[in-house]
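note to self: dont lose this again. the chain is below, predicted strucutre after it. 91 aa total, dont forget to put it in the shared folder this time
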Amino acid sequence: MQKLYKFHLVCGKLGYIDGLFIADDDEVGLLSGKTIYFGEVSGRWLETYEIIDESNLTIITDDCHEIKRLKALFGTNTLCGCNPLMYNAVD
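---
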């Protein structure tokens, strides 16, 4: 079942990374405990690697009608910001 997730990651002095995305529970489960390489999202020469856990993800809704409407409106599973599923796991 797909859900709308809010992603929030605090990167210390470098700021934070946020995003809204739609994903299945299985996809999100694969993120937990993984180190994700976000590239230079915090600025040039500042490569960002962070471990993702459940505290970084909040379920906004699991209403299938709302999810379908959002996917039709945006045409993608990433509604705004950073979708951690679009980045590479390092381990």
